[in-house]
Specification:
This protein is α+β, with helices and mostly antiparallel strands. The chain has two domains: about 1-160, no CATH class; about 170-365, 2-Layer Sandwich (Nucleotidyltransferase, domain 5), CATH 3.30.420. It contains ten helices and 14 strands. The protein has helices at about 15-45, 50-55, 65-85, 195-210, 220-250, 265-270, 280-295, 335-350, 355-360, 360-365; strands at about 1-10, 105, 110-115, 120, 125-130, 135-145, 150-160, 170-175, 180-185, 190, 255-260, 295-300, 325, 335. Strands 2-6-7-1-5-4-3 form a seven-stranded antiparallel sheet. A five-stranded mixed sheet has the order 10-9-8-11-12. It has a two-stranded antiparallel sheet with strand order 13-14. The longest helix has about 35 residues, at about 220-250. The structure holds zinc ion (ZN). Zinc ion binds next to loops.
Amino acid sequence: MLRAYKFRIYPSKTQDAEMRKHLWLSKELWNELLALSKQMYQDFGYFPSKNMLQMLAKNNGMHSQAQQAVAHRLYAGTLRFLKLRKQGKDCGFPRFRSFDRMKSIYYPQSGFSLGKKLKVSPFGEIAIRQHRDIEGEIKTLALKREASGKWFVIFTAIEPSRKSRKHNGEAVGIDLGLKTFVALSNGWEIKNPRHLTKQEELLKLRQRQLSKKKKRSKNFYKAKKHLAITHEKVRNARQDFLHKLSKELTDTYSLIALEKLAPQEMAQEQLGKSINDAGWGMFAQMLCYKAESAGGNVIFVNPANTTKMCSCCGNVQEMALSKRTYECPRCDYIGDRDVNAAKNILIRATAGYAGSKACGEDKLCLQ
Ligand SMILES: [Zn+2]
């Protein structure tokens, strides 16, 4: 399994300038290849092959690996476009990029090594703060410049297969919500952390500030940078929160049941808010790979009626979004709306051998 590791790096002034120049070169190359692809499609009705793009990417002043990577990414983007169009889905063709939009330089195989410092050709040795060990063989490297001007390196490594560990924890169902971030079938609820909510408010403020500035004025660019930096902070804080929470859950529970989400549709139809904001997809992914390392399992279940169904007797009733408590008219079960849903999710994942247990745990969620 591939795993990504991200570390902060500290290039010198010269290195920083050189790396930015290469970002610029890679933007130029991307746009050039893209223009050529489009022209070719117009003239001949097909896109250039991977080999052809690779040939055209040569001798652009960057490391051969980085040049190749630009060609490969454009090729992959074209393929995805064609595939989705075939399926009748609306999907954008790769776009021309401004310098702002070109953030990373990729090394898909070689051109770098990691010792006490990070060595990347042609920039030389760059100071790195490697806060954890990389397990397994490093495969790829990307140098990434965030809007704040900070540089990061992202490695992907193939994780060595572990002997399957036995996990002795219990099974749990998780309901992902917006009000509380997650509710567990045993009654535990985790809210979005306060510092995150605060930063998100700051983000909205920065967006408003930007919208009031005159376009392309000095203050406009200043506000734009402020906004980008806040975005970066929120993203990092959210990832940090998700990493910690998923680690705790996969350490504690041997089986984690989640709803199979249809994020976009669900967000628009039911909540009118972007669910992507809450980072659910990322959270599910983290749970999956962390559970695998811990010897546990993640199961995705059918999400139909998990909120409307009574986790004790199976009765189904309408549940308005504002109703925070589930009260069952048939068996008198009373419980938190999200906890009831989490119990249903657990029951679906363990149907057959642990399904009836959910009822015995009622006391926990009456609190
Ligand atoms: Zn009931």
